[in-house]
Specification:
It is a single chain. The protein has 2 domains: 320 residues, Kinesin (3-Layer(aba) Sandwich); 42 residues. It is 45% helix and 24% strand. The protein is an alpha+beta fold. The strands form 5 sheets. Strands 2, 6, 7, 8, 9, 12, 15, 16, 17 and 19 form a 10-stranded mixed beta sheet that branches. A 3-stranded antiparallel beta sheet has the order 3-4-5, covered by helices on one side. Strands 1-18 form a two-stranded antiparallel sheet.
Length: 410
């Protein structure tokens, strides 16, 4: 069991706004001046922090775990114009979390000489509760499906095989050019949709490495001929372990999510299409908040209903919310006095998320050979345990009989 990791990143304030800000930050706690309520998080960054600090706080570990077969999700949450897109996508001067994760992912894979990797990526947006493929713009209004083999997935979503970080970044920029954006009173470049960037990792033990190890085994037999029985037993154990790894394929998914910001029409000045977009954004974020609230209260573990299906966003992210994934939330806020209510609401959401736990595990697909080996090993272990139990029981019976015989003689 591992809970969601939550960090807070305040947006830098102007000198004028800084003077009137009611918020007070002390290490990893934040509160409003002259109020008793306080919010504690895993990490609260300084306003002038670099995105690399945000990335290394938790996302770096999630990327590393994804290479080992664990699912991972990181998403930026906050009101409009609080710095979410800057955190996730970055700028020409400072790379964002997505770019840092992609580069780190490939660096980690290159260092792992024992395994072979196949990487695919997808990029989608949820706009007005419709799923659009940003890598294939003609694929619109896609549907969510679920089955035993793939779990929850978006049917028809393009998955591009990628081999370099440059290829991934180019595809992401192509997708970004088709994302819905618009101007409001609060933000010239306002995201009008949620985006989900995904990396799919398939990995198995390197067949070349497997072959070389067997050559090494043969060499050892010839060199240590007199002690071959000792070496043979050790090599058989090693061979079984390698064989299991070789026959098992690990699969994992890494989600990097840039959520559209919550909006108040009175502040954004939204009308017409912008108002409709804002309404859909707020509705999906409200559902996300409800899901987090229910999970934090333990409703699902007690057999209660969690409304994942009330929104496309929560349905797609369902495995990351109380499911099988390492999940982190970057809560972007502004400390300006004019946005106090929105900031407090965002911090309340983030505080609830701290109480949500996930059940993470390595995702393995076993071949028939690996499954048979594993089952044989389990049977042998069970037999060994039964033998131990038998001898313990026999010892206890004999001990009791011995005591009874002594009492009779007395």
């Amino acid at each position: 069991m591992e809970r969601i990791f939550v960090t807070v990143r305040p947006k830098p304030l102007s000198s004028e706004d800084a003077k009137s800000s009611p918020w007070r930050i002390s290490e990893n706690s934040i509160s409003i001046a002259n109020q008793t309520s306080r919010f504690d998080f895993d990490r609260i960054f300084k306003e002038d922090c670099k995105t690399i600090e945000v990335y290394e706080a938790r996302t770096k570990d999630i990327v590393s775990a994804a290479v080992r077969g664990f699912n991972g999700t990181v998403f930026a949450y906050g009101q409009t114009n609080s710095g979410k897109t800057y955190t996730m996508r970055g700028s020409d001067v400072e790379p964002g979390v997505i770019r840092l994760a992609v580069c780190d992912l490939f660096d980690t894979i290159i260092e792992d000489v024992d395994r072979e990797f196949l990487l695919r990526m997808s990029y989608m947006e949820i706009y007005n509760e419709e799923i659009n493929d940003l890598l294939a713009p003609e694929h619109r209004k896609l549907q969510i499906h679920e089955n035993l083999e793939r779990g929850i997935f978006v049917a028809g979503l393009k998955e591009e095989i990628v081999a370099t970080p440059e290829q991934v970044i180019d595809l992401m920029e192509f997708g970004e050019s088709h994302r819905h954006i618009g101007e409001t009173n609060m933000n010239v470049y306002s995201s009008r949709s949620h985006t989900i960037f995904r990396m799919f990792l398939n990995t198995e033990f390197s067949k070349i490495r497997f072959f070389l190890i067997h050559i090494s085994f043969t060499f050892c037999f010839r060199v240590f001929g007199k002690n071959y029985k000792i070496i043979e037993s050790r090599l058989r154990t090693e061979d079984d372990n390698i064989g299991n790894s070789c026959d098992a394929v690990r699969v994992s998914v890494l989600n990097l999510v840039d959520l559209a910001g919550s909006e108040r029409a009175a502040k954004t000045g939204a009308e017409g299409m912008r108002l409709k977009e804002g309404s859909h954004i707020n509705k999906s974020l409200m559902t996300l908040g409800t899901v987090i609230k229910k999970l934090s209260e333990g409703v699902e573990s007690n057999g209660g209903h969690v409304p994942y299906r009330d929104s496309k966003l929560t349905r797609i992210l369902q495995p990351s919310l109380g499911g099988n994934a390492n999940t982190a939330i970057i809560c972007n806020i502004t400390l300006a006095q004019i946005h106090t209510d929105e900031t407090k609401s965002n911090l309340q959401f983030a505080s609830k998320a701290l109480r949500v736990t996930n059940c993470t595990r390595v995702n393995e697909i076993l071949t028939d050979a690996a499954l048979l080996k594993r089952q044989k090993k389990e049977i042998e272990e069970l037999r060994a345990r039964l033998q131990v139990c038998f001898f313990v029981l026999l010892y206890l019976i004999l001990s009791v009989r011995g005591e009874n015989m002594c009492s009779i003689r007395e």
